[in-house]
Amino acid sequence: MLKKKPKIIAFCCHYCAFTAADLAGTMRLQYPANVNIVRLPCTGKVNANMLLQAFVDEADGVMVAGCEPGSCHFLEGNVRAVKRVSFAREKLSEAGINPERLEMFHIPASEGPLFAKSAKEFTEKISQLEKKGDGEADEPDSDETGVETGETDSREIGAEKGEPD
Ligand code: FES
Description:
Rossmann fold
């Protein structure tokens, strides 16, 4: 039986990555149809719970794509996003999910080809992880983390404490 393509959620900043994705479409550049874009006014709107919830909701991989460093329309939104992605990656690792499944990208609005390339490469990486499994990620101790891992269908992960501003 043919394995389905991994489900990818891409949280994209309206001013850059979303525009780049739109441009990729206008340029008729192909990128995987399994990449589901969520448009945000700025990647500074993402928080760790939102990112982790995407995995609870069956995402196989999550992209956060914002403006280049120094180019955020809200000054430091993308800097905050980097910190939050990093924090959420730690939580994924604690939950026994490979943190490579979550990645931050910086994609200028004029870079349709870069968006298409990033989406393809990330999908390929997640496809490889789906084949290999998340073996490299540390196994959590549910007593220490308070997180039940169990089967991937019933992931329960959270980021109640310690999330960066
Ligand atoms: Fe694009 Fe903040 S406006 S990341």
